[in-house]
Hints:
Layout: H1 2-14, H2 20-29, H3 33-41, H4 46-53
Helix pairs in contact: 2-3
Amino acid sequence: xxxxINIVEQHLLGAxxxxxxxxxxxxxxYKMDKLxxxxxxxxxxxxxxxxxxxxxxxxNLNHIR
Length: 65
């Protein structure tokens, strides 16, 4: 299964049709470290953090809290 997750992660790293939030929550759920690092690097403002915390899925994040 890790091989499939790696392939999906590589696809998502280059995909533009997923929102930042979809990518972040997927990366966290499936432990996609490269995608998670990319998403975290895109958080640059306090407003971005506030919007992230507004999602119900925020409480389920394991790797960034």
